[in-house]
Write a structure and sequence with these properties.
328 residues, mainly alpha, two-stranded antiparallel ribbon, 14 helices
């Protein structure tokens, strides 16, 4: 039914779809967390938490599903990335746990210091999680040192402190903050709604500045990411769609079409993740400075029988995840 390359490519796309779903859905509640301390009163902060209360845990299902799909389809990538990024991933896990605990524990006691402590934990966990997601993607895009056996051969400091990865981390925080502010505008009213609406412009300006600098750095220092667009110019359509989606956000906010602005923000994130996938393909983990050691959709994949069986399971399970996300 499928050729060898078809199944591998299909799983590359499927894993990308799952992680994109996580970025779009959990991105806005991470963004809400990043903005949490800007709310002035205890009541306002409670409203912000209530806005994401029904959805935040469901959004993280996409991360779990994406990790499971990566392990099933490309186990070598899972092993290599988790060994190289073990400490950052543990910090990411701690950040996500602290967010969850903060949401649940904040209202358990009425003392001001208690609630402020959990407010800080929620905001710090959100910013740290968004930053680490960006740093990880930045390192994957730049490339990490792999030996001929496709095992990580670098140092943790070389990953976390890499300027390109740090820039992508900051850009991700800015993107999620903009995304979260737009989501909150849809979910609030009155004075708080008007105040949050004023947050969108600086958040968007910060994101655009970061993204322009990040794009220039990519063009200058990470040429392999742009090779696909050079060889297949029609991929440039995705770039145009991303720019149009971002440009439509201030237009929609000005006209008070909040849901349209949120859809534009989602569309921009979809396009940006698509560009990341286009730039990486067929690599899953690019090896720098020795590209020959890269993990690709061919040398990192499970057997064709495993991919075929898992595809059947995915075709059953993915609609369930989609239905769950829509229903909440």
């Amino acid at each position: 039914m499928f050729t060898h390359l078809d199944l591998n490519t299909l799983w590359f796309v499927l894993v990308g779809v799952l992680f994109t779903g996580y970025a779009v859905l959990d991105g806005f509640d991470l963004g809400v967390g990043a903005l949490h301390l800007f709310a002035r009163s205890d009541q306002d902060r409670r409203i912000l938490l209530n806005a994401i209360g029904p959805v935040w845990d469901g959004n993280e299902v996409w991360l779990v599903t994406g990790g499971g799909a990566l392990f099933a389809a490309f186990p070598m990538v899972y092993a290599t990335v988790f060994s190289g990024f073990y400490l950052p991933f543990m910090l990411l896990l701690v950040a996500l746990i602290f967010r969850a605990v903060a949401i649940e524990f904040r209202s358990k006691q009425p003392m001001r210091w208690w609630r402020q402590m959990w407010d800080v934990a929620f905001a710090a966990g959100s910013v740290l999680a968004a930053f680490l997601i960006g740093v990880t993607m930045g390192n994957i895009a730049w490339g990490i040192p792999l030996d001929p056996h496709h095992e990580f051969a670098g140092t943790l400091g070389g990953l976390v402190l890499h300027p390109y990865a740090l820039l992508m981390g900051v850009t991700t925080v800015a993107l999620f903050a903009m995304h979260g502010a737009i989501y909150l505008v849809m979910k609030t009213e009155g004075e708080l709604h008007d105040r949050i609406r004023r947050w969108i412009t600086p958040a968007m300006i910060l994101f655009i500045l970061c993204y322009v600098i990040f794009t220039l750095a990519t063009l200058l220092y990470v040429p392999h990411i742009t090779e696909a667009i050079k060889h297949e110019p029609w991929f440039f359509v995705v770039v145009v769609l991303a720019v149009l989606a971002v440009a439509n956000i201030p237009r929609s906010i000005t006209r008070r079409r909040d849901f349209e602005a949120f859809l534009s923000s989602c569309g921009a994130m979809l396009c940006l993740m698509a560009l990341f996938g286009i730039g990486m393909y067929p690599n899953l983990v690019y090896s720098h400075p020795l590209p020959a050691n890269s993990l690709t959709i061919i040398n990192a994949a499970s057997s064709q029988k495993t991919l075929g069986i898992m595809l059947t399971i995915a075709l059953i399970g993915l609609p369930v995840v989609l239905t769950y996300s829509i229903s909440i």
